[in-house]
Design a protein that fits this description.
Chain A contains 14 helices and no strands. Chain A has about 325 residues and is mainly alpha-helical. With about 290 residues, chain B is an all-alpha fold. Chain B has 11 helices and no strands. Chain B has one domain: MetI-like fold (Orthogonal Bundle), CATH 1.10.3720. The chains are: A mainly alpha (about 325), B mainly alpha (about 290). Chains A and B meet through α1, α6, α7, α11 and α12 of A and α5, α6, α9 and α11 of B. Chain A: Its main location: membrane. Chain A: InterPro entries: BPD_transp_1_N, MetI-like, MetI-like_sf.
Chain lengths: ~325, ~290
């Protein structure tokens, strides 16, 4: 287990180093430098020179990369070109909003997805199963930001039940929850279908296992077999999918946050891209990559703990 | 693993029949065909010029003259949606095509080339797929500036690692097969093994994966254009129409409602078709990209 954990962590660190180098190198692949990119075509040479110096761009590139790694290790992701605020502060300010959105979206999707997946297994090959199959595929494919816009029109504009924009008042939990409902619905809906299918497939495989046959032979009720003996086993493979899927949840969140003007990582980075605020974009991408790698690695280690067969092969 | 390429004409006909007998696959095929026709014949189908302004006719709800109404500049929405199909499909098919070709070549190199090269390529594929898709896309857009070319490049960059990994796995499995060893023993060169034996057998799963990826790519194009980071206005990208409609949400909600429909139908169509194809061609299921 320890050897596996070390190799898995090593791989993640290696990937992070490659990503960091690539991110930093990308700026040098294109004509112009980050200073001119940020300041736009109308900036004076003096202004550019000052910014170049402040960003350390007058140093040799290897020195720059060295400093960059050192700074990131110390938690310094650079300074916002416009507001002069540290990038990490801005990220940490809005990250909880995005994290809560992601967790709530994944949470409700998992709950409903498990129920629907089990329903499809209990009534397999009936019309319920077929209907759930078509519904699952349909909700998987519909883009989350379109769902978000439709939900906003119906529930915020026409019915006026829920707020259309923002993340709720600070310190007012009720308003924060109300502001979370529509975004979490839009981000999670695709995952309901995906998880329902995944649980169904995984369950059907588990239902063939000897311990289920034994349970049947003992005359247990089908419902107990499904929920108490098949589900706990069938749910293990979904852990790694959930972790990898958190990346796509975050991607949906970027669009959905923008639709609801909800402060978060998505609104932070899209605003920065528009203004070509390179330090903020790069810092956010690095932060989110690091976070995502952390989630995936943790999930892999968790699965290796739960399922010894995984430890034998390093899934790279 | 069975594949499309080595199927005989008769087998191919039965693939078609199997797809037609599956209601979901059939619905997907119909939708995709409709959108393809719309994209191909946009100049002849569209009743108006998609970017012609007619400010006097702005914000007209759907009527006999404008079936889908007009937007804030009086442009006919139906015409914009029809031309939007050309943009959406053009961009997605071009970019997944390029990504597929790159993935095919790199995957074959990784799977059949020297071990050290394989390790380096796998590390690159892994690193690129560990960036959550949208953040990587946004980083590239910041550096290059938004636009159609950037959009295609972004889609190629986020798509090809998954394709390359699929091809690599397929190649590795095949390279150890007895018939390849037999060919080698008979003195076949690397070129013959790659083009005659590996290539035809690895293409099938790639086609399925690409087809299942098209809805993701259509969504990405529309999403980035919606954020004003993709196709530049006044081009009638579905994302642009949505974003313009969003700005007039309270004044003319039908713009957003109408603009979302083609996006929903197109992604549904390609997903249904991909699912149908996968069930027919590869019952064990190909890998799917998430994130």
């Amino acid at each position: 287990m320890l050897a596996y954990a070390i190799r898995r962590l090593g791989l993640s660190v290696l990937i992070l180093i490659v990503v960091m180098t690539a991110m930093y190198g990308m700026v040098f692949l294109v004509p112009g430098d980050p200073a001119s990119l940020a300041l736009g075509p109308r900036a004076t040479p003096e202004l550019k020179e000052a910014l170049r110096e402040r960003m350390g761009l007058d140093q040799p590139i290897l020195t720059q990369i060295f400093y960059f790694f050192g700074n990131v290790l110390r938690g310094d992701l650079g300074i916002d070109v416009w507001s002069k605020r540290p990038v990490l502060d801005q990220i940490l300010e809005v990250f909880p909003n995005t994290l809560i959105l992601g967790i709530v979206a994944l949470g409700w999707a998992l709950g409903i997805g498990i129920l629907l997946g089990c329903a499809a297994v209990v009534w397999r090959d009936s019309w319920v199963d077929r209907l759930l199959g078509v519904l699952s595929v349909s909700v998987i494919s519909v883009p989350s930001f379109v769902v978000a816009i439709y939900a906003l029109i119906v529930f915020a504009v026409w019915l006026n039940w829920l707020p259309a924009i923002g993340a709720g008042e600070k310190g007012d939990l009720a308003s924060q929850i109300r502001a979370l409902i529509l975004p979490a619905f839009a981000v999670g809906i695709g995952w309901v279908g995906y998880l329902a299918r995944l649980i169904r497939a995984s369950m059907l495989e588990v239902m063939e296992a000897p311990h289920i046959r034994t349970a049947r032979a003992f005359g247990m009720r089908e419902r107990d077999i499904v929920f108490r003996h098949a589900l706990p086993v069938a749910i293990v493979p979904t852990i790694s999918i959930l972790a990898v899927g958190f990346g796509s949840i975050l991607s949906s969140a970027v669009f959905v946050e923008s639709v609801f003007s909800r402060p978060g990582i998505g609104t932070l980075i899209t605003g920065a891209v528009e203004k070509r605020n390179y330090p903020v974009v790069m810092g956010t991408v690095l932060f989110m990559t690091g976070f995502y790698l952390l989630v995936v690695t943790t999930a892999d280690l968790l699965i290796a703990r739960l399922d010894p067969r995984v430890r034998d092969v390093l899934r790279s | 693993m069975s594949s499309v390429a080595d199927a005989s004409p008769a087998a191919r006909r039965s693939i078609g029949r199997a797809l037609l007998s599956d209601p979901m696959g059939l619905a997907g095929l119909a939708l995709v065909t409709a959108f393809l026709l719309m994209a191909l014949f946009a100049p002849w189908i569209a009743p108006y010029d998609p970017i012609a302004l007619d400010v006097r006719a702005k914000f007209q709800p759907p009527s006999a003259a404008h079936w889908a109404g007009t937007d804030h500049l009086g442009r006919d929405l139906l015409s914009r949606i029809i031309w939007g199909a050309r943009l959406a499909l053009g961009i997605s098919i071009t970019s997944v095509g390029i990504a597929g070709a790159i993935g095919l070549v790199l995957g074959l190199i990784a799977g059949y080339g020297p071990r050290w090269l394989d390790s380096i390529l796998v590390l690159i594929f892994d690193s690129m797929s560990s960036l959550p898709m949208i953040f990587f896309a946004l980083a590239v857009i910041t550096v290059l500036g938004p636009g159609t070319t950037t959009l295609i490049l972004v889609i190629v960059l986020v798509s090809f690692p998954a394709y390359a990994r699929l091809i690599r796995t397929q190649t590795l499995t095949l390279a150890g097969a007895d018939y390849i060893l037999a060919e080698k023993a008979m003195g076949a060169g690397t070129g013959r093994i790659i083009f005659r034996h590996l290539l035809p057998n690895v293409v099938g799963p790639l086609v399925i994966l690409i087809c299942m990826d098209i809805p993701v790519v259509i969504m990405l194009e529309a999403g980035l254009s919606y954020l004003n980071l993709g196709v530049k206005p006044p081009s009638p990208s579905w994302g642009n129409i949505l974003s313009e409609g969003y700005n007039a949400l309270r004044q003319a909600p039908y713009v957003v409602v109408v603009a979302g429909i083609p996006l929903v139908l197109a992604t549904l169509g390609f997903t249904f078709l991909g699912e149908g194809l996968r069930d027919v061609l590869d019952p064990r299921g190909a890998g799917r990209r998430w994130g």
